[in-house]
Amino acid sequence: MYDDLINGVYGKFSGHTHPFGYSLEPGPADEPFLKLLGQKRSSVCGAEGDVWLPFGQEPWLTEDIRQEIRREAMAKLYRGNNN
């Protein structure tokens, strides 16, 4: 199954959960695994499914991705575009 995940047999790795009570920050294996998949970003979702945090292949990329999402949200707010 690991090889199938790496080779994209099951599609894109769009996110995963951490158990209730654990941090939503990427774990020590999350960023290296994303690199193996050749993907630029993914997300960790809260156990309740209501909160999520994106992450990238490296910690500095994670911060860039989060800033980009914040900029896009603010741009929509100020443009009055809620789509």
From TrEMBL:
<protein>
    <submittedName>
        <fullName>Uncharacterized protein</fullName>
    </submittedName>
</protein>
